[in-house]
Amino acid sequence: MPDGFNCGIFAEMTTPKRYLITSALPYANGPKHIGHLAGAYLPADIYTRYLRAQQRDVVFVCGSDEHGAAITIQAMKENTTPKDIVDKYHALLESNMHDLGISFDIYHRTSSPIHHETAQEFFTKLNNHGDLEIKESEQYFDESANTFLADRYIIGTCPICSNDNAYGDQCEKCGTSLSPEQLINPRSTLSGNAPSKKKTTHWYLPLDKHEDFLRQWILEGHKDDWKTNVLGQCKSWIEAGLQPRAVTRDLDWGVKVPVAEGEGKVLYVWFDAPIGYISATKQWAINNNKDWKPYWEDKDTKLVHFIGKDNIVFHCIIFPVMLKLHGNILPENVPSNEFMNLEGDKMSTSRGWSIEMDEYITDFVKKENGGDMMVDALRYYLTAIAPETKDSEFTWKGFQDALNSELVAVFGNFVNRAFVLMHKLCNGKVPSLHATIIDDADRKLVADIQEAKIAIEKNIENYKYRDALFEVIDLARKGNKYMQDKEPWIVAKQTGENGLPTVEAQQKIDNCLHYCLQLTANMAVLINPFLPFTAKKMCYMMKVVDKMLNWENAGKVNLLSVGYSLRAPELLFRKLEDIEIGEQIEKLKNKSKKLMETTLNTQPENTPEKVEEKKATIQFDDFAKIDLKTGTIIAAEKVEKADKLLKLEVDLGSEQRTIVSGIAMHFQPENIIGQKVVVVTNLAPRKMRGIESNGMILMAEDKEGKLVFVSSDVNNGSNVS
Ligand SMILES: [Zn+2]
Description:
Layout: H1 3-13, E1 18-23, H2 34-53, E2 58-64, H3 69-77, H4 82-99, E3 106-109, H5 113-128, E4 133-142, E5 147-148, E6 154-157, E7 166-167, E8 184-188, E9 196-206, H6 211-220, H7 228-240, E10 244-246, E11 248-250, E12 265-267, H8 269-288, H9 293-297, E13 301-306, H10 312-326, E14 340-342, H11 357-365, H12 372-384, E15 392-394, H13 396-425, H14 440-461, H15 465-486, H16 488-491, H17 503-527, H18 532-542, H19 578-602, H20 620-624, E16 628-638, E17 646-651, E18 656-661, E19 676-680, E20 686-688, E21 691-693, E22 696-698, E23 700-701, E24 707-708
Helix pairs in contact: 3-4, 4-11, 5-8, 6-7, 7-10, 12-13, 13-15, 13-17, 14-15, 14-17, 15-17, 17-18
This protein binds zinc ion.
C-alpha cells in the first residue's frame, strides 16, 4: 500500500490538535429572540461544552457586530448616537447569553480598537497583494447633508409593487432585492431631498475569480461531511455565477479604509464582521496569555462556524475566499441551522411575533428561585426541536409537554426515585454490588449505558444534537424501566424476624440501587453539554466535584464508591402549568397586535424594530392643562458640544420663542427653516447647555424613524386639539 494513502486515512482519523468554535456575531441593534439562540448559539455551546469535557483544546468566540447601516438607522430611531446604540445592545446581548448558559470564552465587540486594527491589516494585505479590484462608479449623493448615501439611506417607490417607502437594497413590502438605481423617485432619508449622482471609488473582492476554488473545496471536498441544506445553498450560489462584491462603502460609521484614497469610506460590514472572529481570538489570547496564531494559521486546528441559514453565503463562500487570500485556515464545517417558527408564524422581532431572550429571562429565570432549571428547560426544548435540517416550530404547548412529560416525568423522576429509595433502603449510602447475583437485566443496563455514550458521542461529533439529546432521555427511560422491573420497594417487604429485609432481599435491593446510582452519575456526564445547570446540581447531590463530568467517565459504572454517603435529592425540574403558557400566548398576541396597530397608524408596511413602552395613563384634566399651538421654525442652529440639540426660534403668530430641541441627529439646521411644528407653549422654562428653552416641540416618527413636520397649511398660533 502506498505511504500517501496510509497518511491520508491516518490524518482523517486523528483528533485535531485544537478547535476554534464561532457563533455568528449578532447585530447590536436590538434584542435577539430564542430562534437566534436555537440557530447559532445553543448548538455551538453544546459542541464546545462536549469538547471541553473531552479535555480538548477549544476556544469559543463570539461578539457583537457593531457596524453598518443597521446600527446608524437604529440610532436615528432612538434619537441617539450609534455609539450609544452599540453600548446599550452589546451589554444586553452579553448578559442574555450569559444568563442562558452560553459559555463563550470571549464575547467581544467589533467597535474595539483591536478589531479595527485587525480588519485594517486584513484589508491592507489583500490590497497590497492585488487581490482586490478598484472601480469607479456613480452613486447617490445628498448635497445638503454632504454625504454619499448607503443603500438603506435611500428610499423611493418600488418598481415591482409601488410601495412608496422601499429601501435602496430591498423592498420590505414585496421582499424584492433592489439596487438604489431601480427606485422610482429616490429620496434621501437624511434630508428628504432627491439625491444627485456623484462619482466614487470603491474596492471590490472579485469572487468570480475564485469559483473554481470554491467548487473544488465545497462541492468536491465537503460533499460528504457538510449538511445538505448548506451544500444546496452553496451549490446554487456557485452555479448562478459569482460577482465582484464591494468591500468598501461611503459611510462614516465603521472601520476606516486604511489608505489615503479611502478618505470618508469604511469597510463594508460583511467584510469586517467575520474578521471579528479573529480579533476576538486575539483579545482572548491577550486576556489568557496565550498565542492566538495557531488557532487561525495551523492546519491542525479545526475551525467550525455555527450560523443561521441567512448567513450561509457569508461563511461558506465569501469569508473562506478572504481567509484563503489572507493565508488563514478554512472552516472544517459550517453546520447552519434553518429557521425556528413560533406558534404557526415566522418569528420576527419587528412584527412582535417573537420570544426575546431577555423576555424569557425576565419571565422565567429571574423571577423565581432556581431559575437555572428554567434555563435548562428552554435549552432542552430548543435542542429537542432544533431546526437542524428543516424549519421547525416552537409552541408553548410543545414546550410544556417536553418539560412535563420528558424532563420532569422521565429524567427528573428517575433521579429522584433513585435517591429517595437509596435513603430509605440503603441508609443514604451507595450500596455494595453483590457479584454473585448480577443478572441479565443488570448486564443489559450496563450495556445500555455504554451504547448510549457511543451514540451520543457520534451524534455530537456529527452536529446532530437532537438525536444526541434523545439518546440521553432514552437512557433515563431505560433506567425507569429497569427500576420498575426490579421493584426494590416490593423486595423490601421480604422481611425476617427482626422486621428488616432478609439478607437475600437486601442484596437484590443493593444491586438495583447501586446500578441506578451509577446510571445517575452517567446521566450527569451525558446531559452536561446540553443542560449544564442540571449536571452541576446532580454533582452537588452526589457530593462529587465537577471533574466527574469529564467525558472519559461516561460509560463507566464505578463512578460512585460503595459506602459513600449522598445528599438528599433536590428538585431538578418543575412542571410548567397551563396558566403560565396561557399567559405567554396572550402576551405574544397582545405584543404583536399592539405593534401592528402602531404600524397601521403610520405606514401599512411599517416594520418598527422596537415596541414603545406605554406611559402611565393621565386624567383628562392633566391633559387639558397642556397648551399646544402650531408655529414655524424661523431660525435654527447647532448647540455647541451637544450632538443631539438644536436651538430653534419658533414663530407662534403672536410671539417668538427660543426652544432647545433634541432633533439634531435627524436634521441639518438649514433644512428645517420654514417647517411647521406643534409646540407645548406652557411648559416651565428650563436651561439646556446654558440656553433657556421656552417650550417643547412635538413630532411624530415615520417608518424610517424620521421625524415629520406638520403640514404647511396651518396658521401659526392655531390651537391643537
Ligand atoms: Zn415592492
